[in-house]
Amino acid sequence: MGRKKQEEEQNNSEYGEPAQYDPTFTGPIHNRSCTDIICCVLFMLIIAGYMVVGVLAWLYGDPRHVLYPRNSTGMFCGVGQNNDKPSVMYFDIIKCATATNIMAAALQGLQCPTTQVCVKTCPSEFWILPPSAHFPGAKPADFFNQDYCVPSFQLKDTKYSAMDIGNKELCPLFYMPTTSVLGRCLPSLGGNAYNPSNFPSNFTLPGLDVNGTLAAIRNATGDVTNSFNIKDVGLRIFEDFAKSWQWIVAGLVIAMVVSVLFLLLLRFTAPVLVWVLIIGVLAVGAFGIWYCYNEYMSLASSSLNFSNVGLTTNVQVYLQVRDTWLAFLIILCVVEAILLLALIFLRTRILIAIALIQETSKALGHMMSTLFYPIVTFVLLLVCVSYWGITALYLATSGAPVYKVVAMNTSQGDCSVIRANETCDPEMFNSTQYPTCPSARCVFINYNTEGLFQRNLFNLQIYNVFAFLWCVNFVIALGHCTLAGAFGSYYWAFSKPADIPTFPLIQSFMRALRYHVGSLAFGALILTLVQMVRIILEYLDHKFKEAQNPCTRFIMCCLKCCFWCLEKFIKFINRNAYIMIAIYGKNFCVSAKNAFSLLMRNIIRVVVLDKVTDLLLFFGKLLVVGGVGVLAFFFFSGRIQTPGTTFETAALNYYWMPIITVVFGAYLIAHGFFSVYNMGVDTLFLCFLEDLERNDGSPEKPYFMSKNLMKILNKKNKAPKTS
C-alpha cells in the first residue's frame, strides 16, 4: 500500500494527469493524419531554394580556382593546354616571404609577387645563372632551360641578353630542388639536399652567404615543407592502405560481429554485466579511499602545509602536503557513501533498467533489420555533407576572376605609369605596354563581386549552412522516429512474437515519411536555430578574440555554455517527442509536451535508466573498440604471425595507419549499432511508463510488459473469469 500511495503521489497533476486507458489502442496508430503541415511546406520550400542555390553556384562557380594552381597569366596548370604541366614553379620563391604588406593583401592563396609558370616536373637540382652568361657573344639558350621559361618566350629566337631575360623575368635566374606540394613547387627541406655542406659553391643569393640563403629559403616556404614532404608521406600511406586493405576490412567485420553479438547476448548477460560494473565502480572508489588513507598516514611527520607551499605550478609539491590527501579522502568517502545509498534505495529501479535492457536485446533478436538502419542514415548524411561541400566550393569560386596590373619589382625602372586598380586580360597582356616598368605583370587578384548574385555570396553561404544543418537534423530525426515506431510495435504486441507486425521497420519508415515530415522538420528546425546561434557565437569569439577584455570573454563564455546546454536539452526533448510521434501520430508540440510530462512524472526512473544504460553501452564500446584495436596492433605490428598469408608487416611504411583506421572504423560501427540499441531502450521505457499508467493488469486492461518486469514490480495480469 505504501509503494502504491507513493506512486500515486508521484503522478501528481504538476506534470499533467496520467495517461488514461484506451480500449482501441494496440500499438502505433495506423489511422493517423498529416501533422505540422505548415512546417512541412516551409521545409519543402527551403529544400527547393537549396536546390536553386546549388544550381546557381554550379552555373557561376568554377572550382578549378581552388583545385588547380595558376601561372602568372591566369591559366590553370594541369588542365586544358597545360594538361601535361600539373605543377606551378616560382621564379623567385624568396619573394613569397619578402612581399610587401600591400602585395600580400592584394594577392590571395599561394600567389607570390614573382613570375609563375606551369611545368611538367619540378626542378630536382641546384642551378644559378653563371657569370659567363653575361660575356659578349654568349647565347642565352646555352644557359637557360626552356621548360622553365615563360611559354610565349622562345630562347632560340630571342635577341635579348641574359641580363634582359632576367630583368623581364622571362626565365628564372636560379632554381633549386623542389617537390610538388598541392601543385606548387616548394623546397623539400626534410632531406639532405638543403644541408649547407651539399650546397654548390656558386649557389648564393645576392648579398647572402650559404647559411643566409638557406634561411631565406626556409622563411619563404614556411611550415608547409619545413619538416617532411607531404606528398611523399601521402603516397606512402596510400601504399600501406593498398597493401593492407583486406585486413582492415577484416578488422571492421570483426568489430561488426562483436557489436552484434554483444547486443544480442545482453538478453542473458545484462544482469551480470550491470552488477559487475556497479560493483567495479564501488571497488575503485574503495581502493581510492584506502590509497588516500595510506598516503595521509605516511605523511604524518611532514610539516608542509598549504601556507608553506603557496601557489605553484608544480603539482608534485601539493602531493607532499598531508592536507591534500585528507581532502581527497573526504571527497571519495562522500562520493562512495552517496553511491552506496543510491544502490540501496534505488535497487528496484536498477532491476527495472536491467529488465528493459534485456527486453531491448530480445526485441533486436526479433527485428534484426533495425541494427542495419544506421546504414540508411549514414548514406543520407553523406549526401547532405557532399551537397553542402560542393555548393560551398562553387559559391566560394563564383564570379569571374579579376586581374590587375602589378609591378613585381618596383626597384626596376619607373612603375608609376601603372594606374591604381588597372585591370587587364592575362591572355592579351604584353609587358611591352609598360616600357619603363619591365616587371609589370597581369596577375589574379580576386573574384568579381559586382552583380546581385556576387554581392550576396556571404548570405548564400549562410543559407547553405542553415539548410545543411536543417537537412542533417531532419535525417537524424527520421532515423529516431523510424526506429521508435519499430520498437513500439514490438512492445505493444501482446503475444510476442506472434503479434509483431510484418516488416515493422519498413512500415514505421513509410508512416514517418507519409504523415510526419512536418513534425520531424519542426523539431529539426528548433535544433538548427540553436546550432546557428552557437556558430555565430563561435565566429564572433574568433573574430574579436584579441579585442576582448576579461569581462567580454566571461560573458561570451557564459553564452556559449548556456547555448550548449540548451542544445543538449532540445536534443533530449526532440528524441522523446519523436518516440511519441511514432507511436501516437500527434504533432510535435503535443508529443513533446506529453513525453516531457511522462518523464517528469517518473524522473527517478529516468535518471537511473539513463545512467545504467550509459554505463553499459560505454563498456560495450570500450570492449569492441579496445578489443579490436589491441588485435589490430598485435597483427599489424607483427606480434601475431598468420601462417598461410602473404601479408608482411615489414612491407608497411607506417604500420600505425591501418591500426588507426581499424580503431576509428570500429568506433563508428559500434556507435552505429549501439545508437539503435539506445533508441530501443528509450522507446521501450516510454512504452513501459505508458503501460503502467494506462493498464492495471485486469482482463479488460492487461499489461503489455514482459513477465520479468511485472515480477520486479509485483504485478501480474489477472486471468479472465470463467463462467
TrEMBL record:
Q: Which reaction does it catalyse?
A: choline(out) + n H(+)(in) = choline(in) + n H(+)(out); thiamine diphosphate(out) = thiamine diphosphate(in)
* Membrane topology classification: Multi-pass membrane protein
Which compartment or compartments is the protein found in? Apical cell membrane; Cell membrane; Membrane
A molecular function (GO) held by this record is:
antiporter activity
Name the domain of life.
Answer: Eukaryota
Biological process annotations from GO? choline transport
Which residue stretches belong to region Disordered?
A: 1-20
GO cellular component, alphabetical, reads: apical plasma membrane
Q: Which UniProt keywords apply?
A: Antiport, Cell membrane, Glycoprotein, Membrane, Transmembrane, Transmembrane helix, Transport
Entries under Pfam families matching the protein:
Choline_transpo (PF04515)
Q: Which InterPro entries match?
A: Choline_transptr-like
Q: What residue intervals traverse the membrane?
A: 37-60, 245-265, 272-291, 325-346, 371-396, 467-494, 515-537, 577-596, 616-636, 656-677
PANTHER family, per database record: CHOLINE TRANSPORTER-LIKE (SLC FAMILY 44), CHOLINE TRANSPORTER-LIKE PROTEIN 4
What role is this protein assigned? Answer: Choline transporter.
Q: Which family does it belong to?
A: Belongs to the CTL (choline transporter-like) family.
Q: What is this protein called?
A: Choline transporter-like protein
> What is the organism field in this record?
Cyprinus carpio carpio
